[in-house]
Every structure is written in C-alpha cells, then in structure tokens.
Amino acid sequence: MPAERNGANRFSVLVVDDDPRVSKLIKQNLEDEDTQVVEATSGLDCIRIVHETRVDLILLDIRLPDFSGWGILSLLRLTEPLHRIPVIVVSVEPPSTALIEQFRPDDYIQKPFDMRDLLARVRRVIGLRSAHQGPGNEVT
Questions:
Q1: What pLDDT is recorded for position 102?
Q2: Are 119 and 7 in contact (CB under 8 A)?
Q3: At what angle do helices 20-32 and 115-132 cross, to 10 degrees?
Q4: How distant, in Å, are the alpha carbons of 39, 66, 83, 100, 118 from that of 132?
Q5: Which residues pair with 91 in a beta bridge?
Q6: Before 2, cis peptide (omega within 30)?
Q7: Distance between the two ends of the chain, CA-based, in angstroms?
Q8: Regions of the chain where pLDDT drops below 70
Q9: Sign of the four-CA dihedral 99, 101, 103, 106
C-alpha cells in the first residue's frame, strides 16, 4: 500500500458484507498486502465499528440485511469526522449516476469482480487519502 505504515499503524480497512465467503476472500487478500482488516456483516455493525475503531477505508456492500448500503453511506457523509473515511461501494448492480452524485462514494466496483481490480482500487483510494494527509480471483 502507498505511504506504508507498520505494526499498529498499518492501514485498516472495514469490509462490510453479509456474505462470509466474499468477506473472507477480501480479508485474506488485503492481509496479504499487510493491511489490517475489520469485518462487519450488517449496517448496524458498520456504524458501531466506525465509532469504536479507526478505519482508513470502508468497502461497503449495498445489499445488507438490515440497512441499505446507500443509507449507511449517507449517514457516514453527514457525520463529523466519519465523512472523511473513504468508501468504495461494492454492488451487484451498477449504481446510477444519480446515486453516485447524491452519496459521493470514492469509488465503486461491481460484483462479480476480479480481486486484482479491487486491490488496485483500494491502493488508489488509500494513496489519494495519504497524499491529502501528509491473487486474482473473481468474487461473486
């Protein structure tokens, strides 16, 4: 990852997905890149974790069992200082231009996706955040 951190200062990514297979695969690949991964299986878990734990990036599934990912993103964007956390939306359906303009995710990726593409997007978004502050599996 750009602007590397070590040990307790590694980058931290919150993976919010109710499919344990997807979360596990993403977690394994991010950990292989020396990234700390926190997992949430619901919108409520996501909100609790971001209030309790420092995260540098959120990978947010849109279809969650309790809330829409768009609702979670809206809440994050309206809450200080959570609005500064970059969010990559992960969705089976491509988001409309109206949704992108309304909720302003930092990026989005459509399921199924190639893990190399997701990792490249994570690197790019974390790299952009850092600049402002000082195995290729397909996932279904």
A1: 92
A2: no
A3: 60
A4: 26, 33, 15, 22, 21
A5: 110
A6: no
A7: 24
A8: 1-9, 129-140
A9: positive
Q: How far is CA 18 from CA 48, 55, 66, 134, in A?
A: 16, 19, 10, 34
Q: What is the pLDDT of residue 122?
A: 97
Token reading at 8: 């307790």
Q: Are strands 87-91 and 57-61 parallel, antiparallel or unpaired?
A: parallel
Q: In terms of residues, how long is the chain?
A: 140
pLDDT of res. 95: 85
pTM of this structure = 0.86
Amino acid, single-letter form, for residue 79: T
Q: Where are the domains of the chain?
A: 9-129
Summarize pLDDT for 57-94 with one digit per residue, the tens: 999 999 999 999 999 999 999 999 999 999 999 999 88
State in words which class domain 9-129 has: alpha beta
